[in-house]
Specification:
Elements lengths: L5 H11 L3 E5 L3 H14 L3 E5 L1 H7 L1 H14 L5 E8 L2 H10 L3 E4 L13 H17 L3 E6 L22 H11 L3 E4 L21 H10 L4 E4 L7 H9 L12 H8 L3 E6 L1 H17 L6 H23 L13 H10 L12
Parallel strand pairs: 1-2, 1-8, 2-3, 3-4, 4-5, 5-6, 6-7, 7-8
Helix pairs in contact: 2-4, 2-12, 3-4, 5-6, 6-7, 7-8, 9-11, 11-12
Bound molecules: zinc ion.
The site of zinc ion has 6 residues, from loops.
Length: 349
């Protein structure tokens, strides 16, 4: 099966009424963990790489690992997605390498830190959409600004500083023609999202529902949506770690989102916690060990467990065989002839 566009993958998720986890990768073991979880749960897959991941692993290593996954699991639809592209050039380089999907995060300027104006965001996102769609590649945009910083990307501060305005979301979708839209509803990147279990005062699910009502056909994306489970925090701290108490986005809130138009859910921190906890445990309990496989195997297994759990919770489990991949070249034809039009169907106010 060729690499699948996130557009096709999320269209199918909308038809089936489920969400799809998008899991970040930096190395072979993380890709293996995701693919084994997908096989275990019969799930379609979105694998995503940030600029930080591309710099860490180098493009060629990372991309060829994804192609290896595609060869080894031909029955599973796999989308390869660029997470938080900061400029047209970053998105272009991913598309030229063969990514089937890119995010243009124009909510920040190209420095990845300073909030951009609405006009700047529209202009750069539209430029990416035109380039990507001509090549059959799907585009995720972002309106509103997420909190926190991860991989050096982010405005910092609270997730409530720049939540998405529903009117702007509609205008943005119309002006840019994005295939999916990341919105800011109070979540942050990284492990420290909330200082207590989040309620409606900090996690704006009402706002998400309002945006979905206005843009019922647009695939919404939740970023910063790790649940940061206490048991994973505890393992790290039990074996010499020093994490401060923190809360993520509860799975039931994500499931509420999925019932209201969320089709892509970004998860990174939970996997980082699982990996680090497993490695700490081995090194703490058996300090005489020095073969990296002794701790990488349990680390990979711990990540697989988290990913499989999320795939089941988001509802994508069981859906890997629902459809055949449309090639990226055929997706390009679809954008050209209008059958993949991204004109959002805006509901009446
Ligand atoms: Zn993000």
């Amino acid at each position: 099966m060729p690499l699948v566009s996130t557009r096709q993958l999320l269209d199918e998720a909308a038809k089936g009424g489920y969400g799809v986890g998008a899991f970040n990768v930096n190395d072979m073991e993380q890709i293996q963990a995701i693919m084994e979880a997908a096989k275990e749960t019969n799930s379609p897959v979105i694998i995503q790489a940030s600029r930080g991941a591309r710099a860490f692993a180098q493009d060629n290593y990372l991309f060829h690992l994804i192609l290896a996954a595609n060869e080894l699991y031909p029955e599973i639809p796999i989308a390869m997605h660029l997470d938080h592209g900061n400029s047209f050039e970053t998105c272009k380089s991913a598309i030229e390498l063969g990514y089937s999907s890119v995010m243009m995060d124009g909510s920040l300027k190209a420095d990845g830190k300073t909030p951009a104006t609405f006009e700047e965001n529209v202009a750069v996102t539209k430029q990416v959409v035109d380039f990507a769609h001509a090549r059959g590649v799907a585009v995720e945009g972002e309106i509103g600004v997420l909190g926190g910083i991860e991989d050096g990307h982010g405005a910092g501060g609270s997730g409530l500083d720049h939540v998405t305005d529903p009117d702007q979301a509609v205008e943005f979708a119309e002006l840019t023609g994005v295939d999916s839209l990341a919105i800011a509803i109070g979540t942050s990147h990284g492990a420290y999202k909330f200082t207590k279990k989040p309620d409606g005062s900090v996690l704006k699910m009402d706002l998400l529902i309002a945006i979905h009502k206005r843009l019922p056909k647009t695939h919404l994306v939740m970023h910063g949506s790790s649940s940061v489970p206490k048991d994973l925090q505890d393992i790290i701290n039990q074996y010499g770690g020093k994490l401060k108490e923190t809360w993520g986005v509860p799975v039931e809130e994500i499931q509420l989102g999925i019932r209201n138009g969320v089709r892509k859910v970004n998860v990174d921190t939970d996997n980082r916690l699982a990996i680090t906890g497993a490695i700490r445990k081995v090194l703490w309990e058996t300090p005489e060990k020095f073969d990296p496989r002794d701790y990488m195997k349990p680390a990979r297994a711990a990540m697989q467990k988290v990913v499989a759990q999320r795939m089941t919770q988001f509802g994508q489990a069981g859906h890997a065989g629902d459809y055949k991949a449309i090639s990226i070249a055929d997706m390009a034809k679809g954008y050209k002839d209008g059958s993949l039009s991204t004109k959002p169907l805006v509901a009446a106010r």
